[in-house]
Amino acid sequence: MKRVTLFRNGRIDLEGKVIAVPCDLNEVLSAAAETLGIDAKKLYSTTGGLIENTAVIRDGDTLIVSEGEPFLESCSKLQSCERDRLKYRPTSSADWIRLNVGGQCFTTTRSTLTRHDPKSMLACMFATDENAIWGNSVDDTGAYLIDRSPRYFEPILNYLRHGELILDPAVNPQGVLEEARFFGLQSLAEQLEIIVEDSRADRDVVCLGRRDVVAALIRTTTHTELRFQGINFTGADLSKLDLSFINFKYSILQGANLMQANLSCCIFERADLRGAKLDGANLLGVRMLCASLEGASLKGCNFEDPAGSRANMEGVNMKAVQMEGSQMFGINLRVANLRNANLQNCDLRGSVLAGADLEVSARLLQRRMVNGCKSNANKIKAVFPT
User: Fold this and answer.
1) With CB atoms counted within 10 Å of each terminal CB, which end of the chain scores lower, N or C?
2) Phi and psi, residue 99, nearest 5°
3) Residue 120: which of 178, 166, 165, 187 has the closest Cα?
């Protein structure tokens, strides 16, 4: 449907009103009367020509509405404005078109905007001469004004030119996707949705490193709980950091370096610490229920808290763990798996080993202190044969 801008006869100083053009002239006059609040009886062009048929009205025309009086010459000032606007109107599919998108100008052809996706907004805007304006204003150079982001519009225009989606590394595909949806470019939007989903999946598996942890520690006050639940720290170097009271529940710390770190009162419940290095770390009051430390190194670790809090490592998997020389006074290792673990010179006084699997570990428990351990008698007899 065609759209026109209406002005009152002799009152071009007032703002014009845009209406959709009905098929019948009387309906146009009725719409003009309702819009301008006058008794509309005649329509004139900006040159003063009386309009008697809607067929001569073009989309984007400027019309003068009269209450029956003749055309006033003061309205002829609109003629020059109309002429300047039409001067920039494309006349064929090979015409060049200038677009002002968010303040940045782009030059392209009508065929580029219309051939790829005929149902898109851009194709509808520039498909025919009648729809070329499509309600869009032009700047003082004749470029069509489009209030969108030029940063995200550029890859869309390049896609329309050659049919290939190319994104610079600095361009966020999510922003381009929103623009593609706005312009109704369905085929492009489908490609971008796949890219956005893939980028989200990549972020999910990104491993955090030392710099990320230090930045979080700096931003967090000492009275605020810091949680790294379910975060991937595979291979991260977190050595010698004060990580006390942090929640690492369900986190992945495979092969991480936690040597000489302060891990007091940390929560490692069901965390994956396989192959991690915790030599010399402070583990006072640590909670490692059902965590996996298979193949990890905990040489010279300190679990003994003078304040009385005891580490809880119930159900932990510590197969083939190196714990030589660790202070494990009062530690809870109930139903823990300690197969082939090296416990040489460990201090296990007051430890709870009920139900723990100590198979083969007996040979490695030479020169240890196990006085006061609460253990299953049958298991101890099997592990330490007389």
Assistant:
1) C
2) -120, 130
3) 187
CA distances from 276 to 259, 282, 315 (A): 9, 15, 18
- Report the distance separating Cα 286 and Cα 300, nearest Å: 16
Cα angle 175-180-183, degrees, rounded to a multiple of 5:
130
pTM of the model: 0.47
CA distances from 111 to 106, 128, 314 (A): 15, 11, 71
- Could you give the C-alpha distances from 234 to 67, 117, 317, in angstroms and in order? 80, 46, 18
- Could you list the pLDDT tens digit for every one of the 386 residues in the chain? 678 888 888 776 667 788 888 888 888 899 888 888 888 889 888 888 888 888 888 877 888 888 888 888 665 555 555 555 545 454 444 478 889 999 999 999 888 888 888 888 888 888 765 544 456 678 888 888 888 999 999 999 999 998 889 998 888 999 999 999 999 998 899 999 988 887 776 555 568 889 989 998 888 877 777 889 888 999 999 999 999 999 999 999 999 999 999 999 999 999 999 999 999 999 999 999 999 999 999 999 999 888 888 999 999 999 999 999 999 989 999 999 999 999 889 988 889 999 998 876 554 454 444 444 444 433 333 233 33
